[in-house]
Amino acid sequence: MLGAGVNAVLRDFRSGQRVALAADFFQRYLENRWFMRHGTINPAHQAAFDYVERTWQRELSTLKSHPLNLEDVFSILQLDMAETRVSGDLAKLAGLHAVEASLTRMLIEYFGQSYGAHDWTEPDSEGWAFAALARHILETSATVLTFNYDTLLEDALEQASGQLIWYQDPPPEDLRDRARQAMRVRYDGYLTPSDYPDDILELFRRLPSTTSWDRARAYGVDFRLVTSNNPDLSWWPLPSATYNAAFTDKPEPSSMLYKMHGSLNWYRMTGQLAEPRPPESANRSPGVPPEYRGKLYLTRDRPGQADPSPNGTLITKGGYRLDPVLVTPVADKSGLLGPELDQVWKAATEALVSADELVVIGYSFPASDVAARRLVLRAAAAGCLKRITVVDITRQPAEGLRALLGPSSGVEVASETGGLASYMRKTGAGPDGRRPT
Predict the structure, then answer these.
(1) Domains in the chain, ordered, with CATH?
(2) 47-50, long-range: CB within 8 Å, 24+ apart, which pairs?
(3) Could you tell me which residue, 226 or 18, shows the higher pLDDT?
(4) For 346-388, what is each residue's pLDDT tens digit?
(5) pTM for the structure as a whole
């Protein structure tokens, strides 16, 4: 089970920054050259900072030196929106929805901007422990439950799993030309199997992925469109029926990855235009097929960077709004899961109640995550769980978990206070699989 602390060993090699936590999110944002390269706030994020200034009386200069917890901001906003709904002030409610959209996009863009820019791939870097963790997960066929939105672990797992044996035949030279011709049928990218020539579909079936561990299948989520990690196919989302058919004779993922609060690369296809289009453009695009509307799209684009809408707060594809599938860090998360995340929680619960050992890294079971606390209580009550190892830099998370479980749970709670690197050394792992000296 992983929380935000698992990323503590990572640095963005461009900025030198560590990944932000909720407690220091605004400070990290304002220190980040990617966002503050012109010394001003991105207009898409301005509504969020205006709300912070109104509610906490904190200007940018104050935020840089006085931390403000992102969870507090989302939670107070949630209460403000509930109160405003009761009052019936629709204009104020619309403004608060704009703040929510601005905060959410800010969250997505912050964690997405360093996509592919972390140092875990360098054997001599601090981040070796993160890569070692990915190898360890695959070697032990561990099931992972994570509360993180980012896709850093997925990147590490795919790299650690190695290239597929059946990815040997080079694609036909004219693949891209013929695929682009297919795209002219639906220039907005919402292709169905009937939009592709048969030989391209056959290529998709042969080469859907270049790695033996594949996130699209390991998430345990029913996506309707999937973007392949095959560089020759990554321009065009594949219908899930086509994608999944390619794996009918391949083994299931050895390690499932359940993302309990959603992911930066999961979006719901609304079928709603982000803005009105000129009449002549209606003839150019059939729009989002009815069978895709309300369904999920798994993208490999840089999170939050694809096709921003004119007002900057929406994320679109082909001009149609995409809704992020995220449970934002609010105190009251009830009613926020939706059918797909409900499916994830059910699968994760089944995995945990049948497990005899749980390793918790960088997660402290905060009081606001009532569902997570209930989950570990249910696992303890099921009787299979015998040991929990809590990996952190202090003993507080382990002590809090002991207090939650109580003295009669029958579950041993061990504390590994050396952090991730120390824990990975004890498993025998090191850079490139070597035990560090």
Answers:
(1) 1-13+118-153+257-261+329-437 (3.40.50), 20-113 (no CATH), 168-206+214-252+263-326 (no CATH)
(2) 47/95, 47/98, 47/99, 47/101, 47/102, 47/103, 47/313, 48/73, 48/99, 48/102, 48/103, 48/106, 50/99
(3) 226
(4) 999 999 999 999 999 999 988 878 889 999 999 999 999 999 9
(5) 0.87
Alpha-carbon distance values, 286 to 142, 178, 180, 223, 437 (Å)? 43, 20, 16, 21, 61
Q: CA 272, 277, 280, 284: dihedral to nearest 10 degrees?
A: -40
| Tokens found for residue 241 | 């029926």
416 has a pLDDT exceeding 60:
yes
Which residues are 18's β-sheet partners?
A: 11
**Cα-atom radius of gyration of the chain, to the nearest Å?**
23
CA 78, CA 76: separation in Å to the nearest integer? 5
Other CB atoms closer than 10 Å to residue 422's CB: what's the count? 13
C-alpha torsion 171→177→180→185, nearest 10:
-110
Report the C-alpha gap between 35 and 331 in whole angstroms: 27
Q: pLDDT digits over 39-98, tens only?
A: 788 888 899 999 999 999 988 888 888 889 998 999 999 999 999 999 999 999 999 999
Q: Rounded distance, CA 196 to CA 13, Å?
A: 40
Amino acid (1-letter code) at residue 41: I
Is there a contact between 354 and 384 (Cβ–Cβ < 8 Å)? Answer: yes
User: Token pair 């048969």 is at which residue?
Assistant: 198
Closest CA to 234 of 278, 174, 176: 176
